[in-house]
Amino acid sequence: MVGVVSIRDALIAAEEAGLDLVEVSPNADPPVCKILDYGKFKYEAQKRANEARKKQKIIEVKEIKMRPNIDDNDYDVKMRSARRFLEEGDKVKVTMRFRGREMAHQDLGMNVLVKVRDDLLEMAKVEQMPKLEGRQMIMVLAPK
């Protein structure tokens, strides 16, 4: 910490030390500069940016496919997977697939999706309510 110094004096001091004069905060009044190795400064800034990028969590949408007449054990396995996905911070897209004459019994598929919603209520919120798209009924759950 030297205080307010003229540019010429700062450049001379940096030259004597064998380092660079780096402007750290150009918007300050007066601008703040440091005498340091510019290559090292750039390297550390890049390293900090990479660390910040690594810490970001990319939210994925995991899909679970079911049929309206799903068996209890199969349903439990799917629920375990859904809970794991939600705990990892991912969204879960629950897809109810209708085949053949199952389209006539869409209420069965809706009942299964309502059961899924109720079972995962403590750890997820419904981001998209169940809606029919072609031969599929889709619901999206997001972690709380």
Would you spell out the secondary-structure blueprint of this structure?
Layout (H helix, E strand, L loop, with lengths): L6 H11 L2 E6 L6 E5 L1 H18 L5 E6 L5 H16 L3 E7 L8 H14 L4 E10 L2 E8 L1
Parallel strand pairs: 3-4
Antiparallel strand pairs: 1-2, 4-6, 5-6
InterPro entries: T_IF-3_C_sf, T_IF-3_N_sf, Translation_initiation_fac3_CS, Translation_initiation_fac_3, Translation_initiation_fac_3_C, Translation_initiation_fac_3_N
Main location: cytoplasm
Function: IF-3 binds to the 30S ribosomal subunit and shifts the equilibrium between 70S ribosomes and their 50S and 30S subunits in favor of the free subunits, thus enhancing the availability of 30S subunits on which protein synthesis initiation begins.
Summarize the structure.
Monomer. This protein is of the alpha+beta class and 144 residues long.
Would you give an account of this structure?
- By secondary structure, the protein is of the alpha+beta class.
- It has helices spanning 7-17, 38-55, 72-87, 106-119, and strands at 20-25, 32-36, 61-66, 91-97, 124-133, 136-143.
- It has 2 domains: 7-55, Ubiquitin-like (UB roll) (Roll), CATH 3.10.20; 61-143, Translation Initiation Factor IF3, CATH 3.30.110.
- The protein has a 4-stranded mixed β-sheet, with helices on one face. Strands 1-2 form a two-stranded antiparallel ribbon.
- The two termini are 48 Å apart.
